[in-house]
Amino acid sequence: MSDKYDVTFSVNGDQRTIHVEARRSLADALREDCGLTGTHLGCEHGVCGACTVLVDDNPVRSCLMFAVQAEGARVRTVEGLAHGDKLHPLQQAFWDHHGLQCGFCTPGFLMLAVGILERDPDISEAALREGLSSNLCRCTGYQNIMKSVLAAATEMRKWA
Ligand code: FES
Ligand code: FES
């Protein structure tokens, strides 16, 4: 029987304490201990990016991070993007520009894009393409994902 540890962190603004084994990934902790299944698991070894969440505003592959490493951190997942019925501009842009097909990769792309655009709202198209290239879409909808993120970037700049 492995030892378990208390881990306290904020998830989408809510303070949470979970009790987990040291080997539990942040992805499993979010999905199974916090009930936030919007974070998807694809490869589970750092290749696909489906599990991307923001940890202290940095995009992180939550399958590669242990939950205990999130102690004291501010974690944001796809569930925290919308405000009630009002979608985040990135979610709205994915809707408007057909940025998803099966949707499996979408939470990861959304969180990756939020992290990139919050850090650099004026990022060039080339740099954005390079940043988004770290995630994979099995449906190969890359053109519309780019179109969606570019549209959202324009919308988010209006907020700044
Ligand atoms: S599930 Fe984490 S990178 Fe693929
Ligand atoms: S929309 Fe299906 S994996 Fe990207």
Q: Any idea how many domains?
A: 2
Shape: globular
CATH homolog superfamily of the largest domain: Beta-grasp domain
What letter string, H or E per element, gives the SSE order? EEHEEEHHHH
| Sheet with most strands | 5 strands, mixed
Q: What's the β-strand tally?
A: 5
The low-confidence runs, each spanning 5 or more residues with pLDDT under 50, are none
Strand order of the largest sheet: 2-1-5-3-4
- Roughly how much helix do the residues carry, as a percent range? 25-40%
Q: Which key features would you list for this structure?
A:
160 residues; alpha+beta; Ubiquitin-like (UB roll); DNA polymerase, domain 1; 35% helix; binds FE2/S2 (inorganic) cluster
